[in-house]
Design brief:
The protein is mainly alpha-helical. The chain is built from 4 helices and 2 strands. 40% of the residues lie in helices and 6% in strands. It is elongated and about 60 Å long.
């Protein structure tokens, strides 16, 4: 039978190992959102745990538009349906979708709008389906 100390410390050790592995992987890629704030937090965790791994922020590996299969920087999006809507003050995705008889999800997907719709701006032209 395991001692009480072993039984309670083992899950903690597993959590620390998993967190350490996660943070090492996050630090090692330019695509993880690892920034200077994350680097400072990772350095603090390492100090507390008595471990030492790199904390430097990785430079961006490429512009998303220079990746194979993605649009190049000269690409201009167009609305294939020809139906557009210009965002007005006070608009949100639900209001725009309702007023144009479009599903909110469809509006977000075809315009690459964030799920919480916080990235639309007044004057932005949105594509509407047929």
């Amino acid at each position: 039978m395991a001692s009480p100390r072993t039984a309670t410390s083992q899950p903690s050790t597993v959590r620390v190992l998993c967190l350490t592995s996660f943070l090492r992987n996050r630090q090692g890629t330019a695509f993880s959102g690892y920034d200077t704030n994350a680097a400072q937090a990772w350095a603090s965790i390492q100090s507390t745990c008595g471990i030492s791994y790199p904390t430097d922020v990785q430079p961006a590996a490429a512009s998303p538009t220079s990746l194979p299969g993605c649009a190049n920087s000269s690409y201009t999006a167009s609305c294939l349906s020809g139906n557009t809507y210009t965002v007005a003050s006070g608009d949100d995705c639900q209001k725009i979708a309702h007023n144009n008889n479009v599903a909110t999800g469809t509006l977000k997907i075809i315009n690459q709008i964030l799920p919480d719709c916080t990235d639309i701006e007044v004057g932005q032209v949105l594509c509407l389906p047929r």
